[in-house]
Design a protein that fits this description.
It is a single chain. Helices cover 47% and strands 15% of the residues. It has three domains: 2-147, NAD(P)-binding Rossmann-like Domain (Rossmann fold), CATH 3.40.50.720; 152-263, no CATH class; 317-394, Rna Polymerase Sigma Factor, Chain: A (Orthogonal Bundle), CATH 1.10.1740.10. Strand 3, helix 3 and strand 4 (77-80) form a beta-alpha-beta unit. By secondary structure, the chain is of the alpha/beta class. It binds nicotinamide-adenine-dinucleotide and magnesium ion. The site of magnesium ion has 4 residues, from helix 7.
Length: 395
């Protein structure tokens, strides 16, 4: 029986993974090793019970007694804290879903790869912050990484067995997020609730705001560069409001291969779960006549500074991805807390990158995990200063 673990099981991707596993038979079909969550220990324990997990780990140490209580009599062990989450990734498994949100997903993913475990990777931040390191670790331990981000799963599927030399370009589609039809001058005033009203996808809070600001797409451009090893000049972004084409690969003979489907993450989660097989999935089938048309438009980088900033990050490479992601996470925290405006998020990230690129380190090569974590920490400090400066400017 295949042994699986799910990191970030209480989130949007985690819950959809549980849904597919439950439909496939749950504990009768898979042996669940570890499940991890953040603070929602009631839900974490419920999932651990239903999948008969060996261990459940919550990120928040204060919640350990509550988790123990909730697991009482189930036979599932309880643990808490970031260290315990990393150790859960050491437990032998065949397949791990990496669906923690943010840079916190990096360490458990790295640990799983070191054991040769197949990593279904939703946590794009791992590739943005430490792409080369992650791929080198996978290679050294003959571990496989299967992309779960819908765009990257689409590209992976469109590539099939084609050699990378035959690839001319990659076109990432973007829904444009909740504010895509707003006039640019109004964006600065957008509230959290407005940025959360995503037209097509139901996702976690953080990625939904990142979709509206296009920071999500900026992360995905870097993710594409790192995962598929394509030159940044060959990566394009197009706004496709219907979210039916999940991304495209253009080949040197001019052919474009597109992956199409309903906007449902169970497409790419299920693909990664069943790979290399293709099994039936409970996703809506497209009715093309009913859809009638698919539309596209070019994104405006004045409106979405994130799309410009990611180009600079790819030029610098080294630790720039770690700095970019950390600054973005802090800017997002401040926007969610109401202390900075929607457009200030890109301002905070740009200020942070400017300040950090004035010093040594961003372009460092031969990076270790410690380098990445140190840059993550430093960029968070700088970004918090930049955000506080902007908050004062607003007051
Ligand atoms: P979410 O916020 O719904 O869930 C995140 C999970 O991580 C939860 O289980 C939460 O408890 C846990 N978590 C949060 N902070 C943590 C920490 N510091 N330490 C340990 N665990 C922590 O997020 P999501 O939308 O499911 O996204 C998860 C990942 O998948 C992100 O990297 C996101 O970019 C990526 N992704 C999500 C979608 C989507 O449709 N939701 C699509 C593509 C990619
Ligand atoms: Mg995506």
């Amino acid at each position: 029986m295949r042994r699986i673990s799910i990191f970030g099981v209480t989130g949007s991707i985690g819950e959809q993974t549980v849904d597919l596993i439950t439909r496939a038979g749950g504990p009768a079909a898979f042996r669940t090793v570890a499940v991890t969550g953040g603070r929602n220990v009631a839900r974490l324990a419920e999932i651990a019970r239903s999948l008969k997990a060996e261990i459940a780990v919550c990120a928040d140490e204060v919640q350990l007694p509550a988790l123990r209580d909730a697991l009482g009599g189930s036979g599932t062990e309880a643990a808490a804290g970031p260290q315990a989450i990393a150790e859960a990734a050491d437990r032998p498994a065949d397949w791990i879903m990496s669906s923690i949100v943010g840079a916190a997903g990096l360490v458990p993913g790295m640990r799983a790869l070191q054991h040769g475990t197949t990593l279904a990777l939703a946590n794009k931040e791992s590739l943005v912050t430490a792409g080369q390191l992650l791929l080198a670790t996978a290679k050294a331990h003959q571990a496989r990484i299967l992309p779960v981000d819908s765009e990257h799963s689409a590209i992976f599927q469109a590539l099939a067995a084609e050699p990378m030399e035959a690839v001319e370009r990659i076109i990432l589609t973007a829904s444009g997020g909740a504010l895509r039809d707003w006039p640019t001058e109004k964006l600065a005033k957008a509230t959290v609730a407005e940025a959360l009203a995503h037209p097509n996808w139901s996702m976690g809070q953080r990625i939904t705001i990142d979709s509206a600001s296009m920071f999500n797409k900026a992360l995905e451009v870097i993710e594409t560069r790192e995962f598929f090893g394509v030159d940044p000049d060959r990566i394009e972004v197009i706004i496709h409001p219907e979210s039916i084409i999940h991304s495209m690969v253009g080949f040197r003979d001019g052919a474009l291969m597109a992956h199409m489907g309903a906007p449902d993450m169970r497409h790419s989660i299920g693909f990664a779960l069943n790979w290399p097989d293709r099994l039936e999935l409970p996703v809506r089938r497209l009715d093309l006549a009913q859809l009638a048309q698919l539309t596209f438009r070019a994104p405006d980088t004045d409106r979405y500074p994130a799309l410009r900033l990611c180009r600079e990050v790819m030029r610098l490479r080294g630790l720039a991805g770690a700095a970019f992601n950390a600054a973005k996470e802090i800017a997002l925290d401040h926007f969610l807390a109401g202390s900075i405006g929607f457009m200030d998020m890109s301002g905070v990230v740009e200020d942070t990158l400017d300040r950090l690129s004035a010093g040594p380190g961003l372009e460092k090569t031969a990076i270790t995990l410690e380098d990445v974590l140190a840059m993550d920490h430093l960029a968070r400090t700088r970004a918090a200063e930049a955000a506080t400066g902007r908050a004062k400017g607003r007051a």
